[in-house]
């Protein structure tokens, strides 16, 4: 059976003989079964087996009449898509974008018509290769690797350490992902009223792309969900800041990164009894609390949201407050948190850490990114900010570290030679609709 449409003759096999285009004959099928990326050549057909995951077929540089065919060998393209990518700036049906085969068992034959429309489907099937076909995300990485299913239609991947979020399928509006990215918290200061460490920067999307949960107040416009493509996304999870970066101050936490979203490490706290400029509190996602200076004044607190983000990722630390000399009874300020500034220290009482933010992105409402409490020379340490901050302490006590994977700031230490608490490590959570 054959029929003629203009200059193109269609055969029963569904393959075109491009008589007027300069190439005649059907494609020659490569009988190898391809289970990885295919670099296609004109005049060839390929059986593609996506049983183990999505596969990309890269089209050759085209001339008018170039022809390539692709078949879903194992009929698994509905769950593990086949992505057909044009060469460079060339088009598929007038769009310079991928064509996604997401129908089980589908075969498609593409012929390059001209530079205006590019590659066209000529199989006469239901497939209309329009360049981009919306497809749900298929991805691995984090814990659990395959994603935890929540609210029936959504998956959540949690990274508590570095890794790669591998996207094997997804395009268009269906390929949007919500995120929570929190950096490591800053370390606490020590000796004579060390400040509390600032919380790691807290950045979150609004939660509308993957529904059924409540984002924190930081998940507001201009923050938006990310549209993902087929590739591997390296994930960085920031570590908490140590103590003792300068004589008595805490170290900054490290940044956390997912795609275009970077959250800044929390500011290290100021140390007590250290002459300026050493021992000062540091700027960061949230600022470190200021430390007292043994009756010499006090170090200023660190600033939050440094560097600035579209929605502020954290708040300033609280200043220290030394008492008149003599006696010199100093109190460090609390570290800044995701939703509130650290509280200033007062005579013999460390300031409280700023409060963190609560999100249900992983289906469990959880507070994270609280600031560390300030230390006091001989009175009482400041309380930890809600969301994983470490408590401050007075002389003889042990300052609390920030809670692991919350980005909480470390607590400040009072008198004596022991150190402040370390900052808590950060976390990255990714959520998307998969069906």
Reconstruct the topology from this structure:
Elements: E1 2-5, E2 8-11, E3 16-17, E4 28-34, E5 38-39, E6 44-48, E7 55-58, E8 67-72, E9 82-85, E10 99-101, E11 107-114, E12 118-121, E13 135-140, E14 143-150, E15 154-159, E16 163-171, E17 176-182, E18 202-204, E19 226-227, E20 231-236, E21 256-258, E22 261-263, E23 357-359, E24 366-368, E25 427-433
Parallel strand pairs: 4-6, 5-7, 6-8, 7-9
Antiparallel strand pairs: 1-2, 2-3, 8-11, 9-10, 11-12, 13-16, 14-15, 15-25, 16-20, 17-18, 17-19, 17-25, 20-21, 21-22, 23-24
Folded structure, characterized:
The protein has 435 residues and is mainly β. It has two domains: 2-133, gp9 (Jelly Rolls); 134-435, no CATH class. The strands form six sheets. Strands 14, 15, 17, 18, 19 and 25 form a six-stranded antiparallel β-sheet that branches. A five-stranded mixed β-sheet has the order 4-6-8-11-12, with no helix packed on it. It has strands at residues 2-5, 8-11, 16-17, 28-34, 38-39, 44-48, 55-58, 67-72, 82-85, 99-101, 107-114, 118-121, 135-140, 143-150, 154-159, 163-171, 176-182, 202-204, 226-227, 231-236, 256-258, 261-263, 357-359, 366-368, 427-433. The protein is built from no helices and 25 strands.
């Amino acid at each position: 059976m054959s029929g003629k449409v203009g200059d193109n003759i269609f055969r029963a096999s569904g393959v075109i003989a491009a008589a007027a285009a300069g190439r005649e004959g059907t494609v020659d099928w490569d009988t190898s079964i391809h289970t990885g990326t295919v670099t296609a050549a004109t005049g060839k057909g390929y059986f593609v087996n996506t049983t183990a995951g999505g596969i990309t077929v890269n089209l050759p540089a085209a001339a008018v009449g170039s022809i390539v065919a692709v078949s879903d060998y194992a009929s698994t393209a509905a769950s593990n898509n086949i992505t057909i990518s044009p060469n460079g700036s060339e088009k598929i049906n007038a769009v310079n974008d991928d064509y996604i085969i997401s129908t089980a068992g589908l075969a498609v034959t593409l012929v390059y018509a001209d530079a205006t429309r590019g590659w066209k489907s000529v199989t006469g099937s239901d497939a209309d290769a329009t360049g981009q076909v919306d497809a749900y995300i298929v991805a691995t990485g984090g814990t659990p690797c395959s994603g935890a299913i929540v609210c029936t239609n959504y998956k959540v991947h949690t990274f508590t350490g570095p890794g790669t979020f591998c996207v094997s399928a997804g395009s268009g509006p269906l390929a949007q992902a919500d995120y929570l990215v929190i950096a490591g918290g800053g370390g606490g200061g020590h000796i004579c009223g060390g400040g509390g460490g600032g919380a790691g920067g807290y950045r979150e999307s609004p939660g509308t792309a993957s529904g059924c949960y409540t984002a924190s107040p930081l998940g507001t416009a201009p923050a938006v969900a990310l549209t993902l493509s087929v590739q591997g996304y390296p994930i960085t999870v920031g570590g908490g800041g140590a103590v003792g970066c300068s004589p008595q101050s805490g170290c900054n936490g490290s940044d956390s990164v997912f795609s275009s979203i970077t959250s800044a490490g929390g500011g290290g706290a100021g140390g007590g009894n250290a002459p300026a400029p050493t021992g000062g509190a540091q700027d960061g996602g949230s600022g470190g609390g200021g430390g007292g200076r043994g009756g010499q004044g006090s170090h200023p607190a660190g600033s939050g949201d440094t560097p600035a983000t579209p929605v502020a990722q954290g708040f300033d630390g609280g200043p220290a407050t030394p008492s008149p000399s003599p006696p010199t009874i100093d109190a460090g300020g609390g570290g800044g948190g995701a939703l509130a500034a650290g509280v200033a220290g007062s005579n013999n009482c460390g300031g409280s850490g700023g409060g963190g933010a609560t999100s249900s992105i992983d289906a469990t409402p959880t507070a994270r990114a609280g600031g560390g409490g300030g230390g006091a020379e001989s009175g009482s340490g400041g309380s930890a900010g809600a969301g994983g901050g470490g408590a401050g302490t007075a002389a003889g006590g042990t300052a609390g570290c920030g809670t692991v994977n919350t980005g909480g700031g470390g607590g400040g230490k009072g008198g004596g030679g022991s150190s402040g608490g370390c900052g808590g490590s950060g976390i990255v959570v990714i959520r998307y609709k998969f069906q």
